[in-house]
From TrEMBL:
SMART domains: TPR
Keyword DNA-binding (UniProt): no
Biased composition (Polar residues): 344-355
Keyword Hydrolase set for record: no
Top-level taxonomy: Bacteria, Bacillati, Actinomycetota, Actinomycetes, Bifidobacteriales
Superkingdom per UniProt: Bacteria
Keyword terms: Repeat, TPR repeat
Biased composition, class Acidic residues, residue ranges: 32-42
Annotated stretches, region: Disordered: 19-44, 312-356, 456-484
Organism of origin: Bifidobacterium felsineum
Positions of transmembrane segments: none
The protein's name: DUF4037 domain-containing protein
Record-linked InterPro entries: DUF4037, TPR-like_helical_dom_sf, TPR_rpt
All residue ranges annotated as the DUF4037 domain in the record: 514-616
Amino acid sequence: MVVDEDALLEQFAAQFAHGPGDLDDTAGLPSDSEDTTDEDTAPFDTDAFLKGLDDIFNRHAAASEAGPYLEQAAIDAENAGDEAGLLTVLNETMGFNRSQGKHRENQWIVQRAIELALRMGLEGSETWATTLINCATAMRAAKQYDQAEDLYAQALACAQKVYPANDRRLAALHNNLSMLYSETNRLPLAEQELQQALTIIEASSVNPQADIDVASSHTNLALVLLQEGKLEDAHTHAAQALTIYATGKLTHSAHYASALAGFAQVLYAEQRYGEAAVHYRKALAVIAECYGTDTDYYRITTENLREAEAKIGTADDRSAPANADTVATGSDALRQADDAPLPTTDSESEQSSPCPVSGLKLAREFWMQVGKPMIAHRYPQYVARIAAGLVGHGSECYGFDDQYSQDHDFGPRFCLWLSDEDYAAIGEQLQSDYEALPRDFTVDEQDAVHFTGNAQEPSVDASASKDHAAQHFSPATPRAQGANRRDGVFRIGDFFTSITGYAEAPAQDAPHEWLMLDEATLATATNGQIFQDPTGEFSAVRQGFKDMPEDVRLSLISKRLGMIAQAGQYNLPRSLKRGDGAAAWLSINEFVQATASMVFLINKPLIVGYAPYYKWQFAALRKLSGSMFALLPDVCEQLETVMRLSSAACFGGAGFGEGGKGAAPAAETIADTVEHIAAEIVKELQREGLTSSNETFLEWQRPYVEEHIESRNPALRSLA
């Protein structure tokens, strides 16, 4: 298996195979079956073999079904005279035998695979390097270290010639070498190999923070550092691995067990026995589900758990007990361990000391406790004429701010919106008074906000926060100031002009003007909250931007149908077939953008708002999809699946991506997902009465949708 992610557990447990399909280098070789078999001999279908093996592992039936399946496949390939197919079967068999601890059985498989590859004239090719890596790993698992090192050396010499510099198969080879050095007590060399592996994988990744191969490398490195006594560095890398699994939504991967057990090992060394036990239990649950309980992997992890449990509550235990009374397995262990907090790296904890309240809540409290009393005291005749709230640019206006958003533009702030007449009378002085408002505040244990006082209004108790044991916060320095400021006093028309270019929404019969406003701009103009609007003038203008004309909505739906079809259903598969990963990558981007927009348009902006700009697009899409009455609620998760697999699909080769299976399975899943999304969109168009067609190639749905556009304005229709 080329990308040997589970091999990291050999630092303290048995080696495990990735599962089926890790090696399909040989699958692409020409089959000899047509030339060497007679009509009574069935040809060997390598693709069908790999898919069948995938199915066994996906059903977690490997323990009982994989062995007989592999034996029969070898017989079928031999009978068909398909040497390429047979080499594929042998490579897969080596990995499976390792996972089952069948090292003796692997001895003759190794010999046979090498002899077959030489007979096929593969020496010096990528397939030769792949086969050598698998054979070396099998020998290492059998503790035949001299033979393994020799095979690894041959594999490395070949791989450096035939693999690109940032090929992940090179990283996997460095990983495997590191384990050999670790097991033979050459730890500095092991660490060096792993650092090389991590460098290669991060350089090849489009998103290292959500990449399963990067996570595995961090765990590998953590275990070697642990053996070297570098405990602090080991913790950092082990924690980073789990963070990547969480960020990338990869916790359902079988390889998650490796990261869990690796972090547990570090916790045990830190004498945090209760926490270690929690992570061992969760690892056992994944192992039991994916590999079964009759494996070295499960047995050794169980023994590690028992050792951790035996030390829970002792004098040197630095963590509290956590479900330590039983050795749980299966789904019970997952449920018990789910309460364990996700570890954070030191850099993450240093970066954030967040205010525990959201920006919108802080803005409302700032208005209620400080701003509103000031206006009542200094501008009593205007109290019933001033609108207040927080709308516009900034993550807090969408309600998506978190601790990472608080390094800029965070602090007590709100907007005051005035008519032109009132702004002429008091605008400048009110802005000066707004800027003079005190902004220091505390947050108590109940997350209630308490401001220290109001310079403009003595009746506000300046000592109100002294009785609260809270944290004290001062506002961050805003980046947007002067003419570009995001809070303070505004003319209503000027406020919306600064965002959209329009003092009020375009007329309902001016579709060309609406089409000039992108959805992200409209989202910025209509987000946030209004705290008070006595005259209703500000709310009316804001609502006008929400009320997109129906003809415009239908026109945009048609445009999105066209882009989904063009980018996702047409150009993406063609680009992948050409091997143009960059074009495929851009096609996926266009497909995702168009589909996300489609979800908001189908749900109607007047009801749910608009899709915001890219940074918050998926935060908004997840929120919308989670609402009770959302239409197309499953599309968000499907789009994230497409993006997660896009790296392997677009830039993968054999051994790249999840489980080392290569680009083909990822590309196939993406294609299936794109078509599933298209089918769901058609169903929703039918439900809304916008089409009577069942055609799932969405370009052909555009005429049906455009039939419902009443305006004759040509800007609303696609070209014939």
